[in-house]
Structures are given as structure tokens and as C-alpha cells.
């Protein structure tokens, strides 16, 4: 079973290299259901793996001059604030039992996994649905209020459930700024690297880390992201997004069924 988990690390990197996100959508369920970590630990480990993998992947895109640094920091600074809010203020103060009355029991782990699954469903619909890119010409045409608020939202999501937020970042960069897909993917990876790394560092003392496991898993994911970046040079990631969207949809439904009906 663990062999499947380690092989999936390569797939995580592959997906991130192709579509600029989706790593945490795969890593959190793998850490919980394959390796047996609790939800809080799984989100922390996911932040490390996604952060390191995105950082390495960003280097290649920086060399290709595909990362829009101005956009990355306008989007990224509010995201960092959102990460700090979630990891330092919200997550540590969530009670073990969110609901424990009227015959209903909702634990902290169940709540995080169900919240994660809802985000997976939203992400899957965004990936399956074809998004037409608007033409944005001047800086005056850019709605910075929406861009900054989207960055804050991504940061809160990143901090709370360990999701890098690429499934939210890429559509935002495409729809709000009119970035071409490859540039949006590259900029998304750079933002994810900042957010995820900070999210992990901010809660290092709250969970126990198995560094051997993390380094092996991250190393395999890095192999995958290099493969994904190489493929992305010859293939448009938008062609793979609908297929990945259907996979994410299935995984989201599985988590909901597992947590609600198969406890």
C-alpha cells in the first residue's frame, strides 16, 4: 500500500508541473488514507511537500522568464496574511469535537476532511468547465480589489486545509489578468511555494515531522514536477485539466462518503 503512496508522489509533481496546482488535492487524501496520518498532520505534511516541489518547479519557470513577479507579490502578500491567520489563529483553536450532540458527531479531523472535499468538488468543476480567457490590456482594466481578496481567500484555504490553492490561483490569474496559461501556471507555482512554505514553517512545532519520509516523498514529487514541466513545453495544460477535474471529483465524493457513511 505504501508503494502506491510513494508512486503517487511522482503523480503529484507531474500534475503540478502541468497545470500549476492540484498537488495538495492529491497529497492530503494520500497522507490520510494510504499512510494513516490524522488530518491536521496531513495538511502540515502537504504544505511541506507542495511548498518544496513548487519552489523547485518555479526555478525552471523563472529561467524561462514565465513568472510574473509583480502579479505574484500583489496576489501573494494577502495570501501570506491569510496563511498566518489560519495556521496561527484558527486551526490551533478548533475544538476536538466541532459538533457532539443530537446524535451527530463531527470531529476536527472530519471537519477538515469534509471541508477539503468540498474544495475538491469546487476545484473539479472549475477544471472540467472550459474557461475562456478575457483580453486585458491596461493596468487600469485590472480589478485589484478582487485580485487581492482572492489572494487572501487562497491564503486562508492554504493555511486551514493544506491546499496550495493552485486550483483557485490559476483561474484567477487567467480571468482577472488575462495571463496566458503557461504564464499563469508558472506564477501560480511561485505563489504556492511562498504560501505553502510559510504555512509549514508557522506550525512546525504543532505536529511531529518524519523528515526521512518527507524528504523521500518530496524528492519523488520533484522528479514528477520536472517531468510535468518538460511535457508542458509540448502540451497545453488546459487539455489535461478536464481529465484531472473528473479524477478530483471522484476523490472528493469518495472522501465525503468515507467520512460520513463509512465511519
Note the topology:
Layout: H1 2-19, H2 23-33, H3 39-63, H4 69-90, E1 97-101, E2 104-107, H5 108-128, H6 144-161, H7 166-177, H8 181-202, H9 211-232, H10 241-261
Antiparallel strand pairs: 1-2
Helix pairs in contact: 1-2, 1-9, 2-3, 3-6, 3-8, 3-9, 4-6, 4-8, 5-10, 6-7, 7-8
Q: What's the number of structural domains?
A: 1
Measured as a percent range, the helix fraction is over 70%
Shape: globular
The secondary-structure class comes to mainly alpha
What does the largest sheet look like? 2 strands, antiparallel
Low-confidence stretches: none
Oligomer: single chain
What's the arrangement of strands in the largest beta sheet? Answer: 1-2
Percentage beta strand: under 5%
Summarize this structure as a short list of keywords or feature phrases.
263 residues, mainly alpha, two-stranded antiparallel sheet, 10 helices, 2 strands, 3% strand, globular, TM_pro_TauE-like, membrane, cell membrane, transmembrane, Probable membrane transporter protein
Explain what the structure shows.
- The chain is mainly alpha-helical and about 260 residues long.
- It has one domain.
- Helix content is about 75%, strand content about 5%.
- The protein is built from ten helices and two strands; from the N terminus they run ααααββαααααα.
- Strands 1-2 form a two-stranded antiparallel ribbon.
- β1 and β2 form a beta hairpin.
- α2 runs antiparallel to α3.
- The radius of gyration is 17 Å and the shape is globular.
- The model has no long low-confidence stretch (mean pLDDT about 80).
Amino acid at each position: 500500500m505504501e508503494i502506491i503512496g510513494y508512486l503517487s508522489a511522482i503523480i503529484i509533481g507531474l500534475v503540478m508541473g502541468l497545470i500549476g496546482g492540484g498537488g495538495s488535492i492529491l497529497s492530503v487524501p494520500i497522507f490520510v488514507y494510504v499512510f494513516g496520518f490524522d488530518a491536521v498532520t496531513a495538511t502540515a505534511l502537504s504544505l511541506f511537500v507542495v511548498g518544496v516541489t513548487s519552489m523547485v518547479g518555479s526555478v525552471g519557470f523563472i529561467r524561462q522568464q514565465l513568472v510574473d513577479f509583480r502579479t505574484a507579490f500583489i496576489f501573494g502578500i494577502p495570501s501570506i496574511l491569510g496563511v498566518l491567520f489560519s495556521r496561527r489563529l484558527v486551526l490551533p483553536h478548533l475544538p476536538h469535537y466541532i459538533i457532539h450532540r443530537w446524535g451527530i458527531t463531527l470531529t476536527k479531523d472530519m471537519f477538515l476532511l469534509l471541508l477539503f472535499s468540498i474544495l475538491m468538488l469546487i476545484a473539479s468543476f472549475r477544471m472540467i468547465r472550459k474557461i475562456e480567457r478575457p483580453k486585458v490590456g491596461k493596468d487600469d482594466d485590472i480589478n485589484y480589489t478582487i485580485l487581492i481578496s482572492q489572494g487572501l481567500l487562497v491564503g486562508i484555504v492554504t493555511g486551514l486545509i493544506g491546499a496550495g490553492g493552485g486550483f483557485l490561483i490559476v483561474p484567477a490569474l487567467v480571468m482577472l489578468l488575462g495571463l496566458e496559461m503557461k504564464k499563469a501556471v508558472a506564477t501560480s507555482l511561485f505563489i504556492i511555494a511562498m504560501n505553502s512554505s510559510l504555512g509549514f514553517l508557522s506550525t512546525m512545532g504543532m505536529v511531529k515531522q518524519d523528515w526521512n519520509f518527507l524528504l523521500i516523498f518530496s524528492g519523488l514529487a520533484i522528479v514528477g514536477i520536472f517531468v510535468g514541466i518538460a511535457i508542458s513545453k509540448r502540451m497545453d495544460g488546459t487539455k489535461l485539466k478536464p481529465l484531472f477535474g473528473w479524477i478530483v471529483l471522484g476523490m472528493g465524493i469518495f472522501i465525503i462518503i468515507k467520512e460520513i457513511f463509512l465511519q
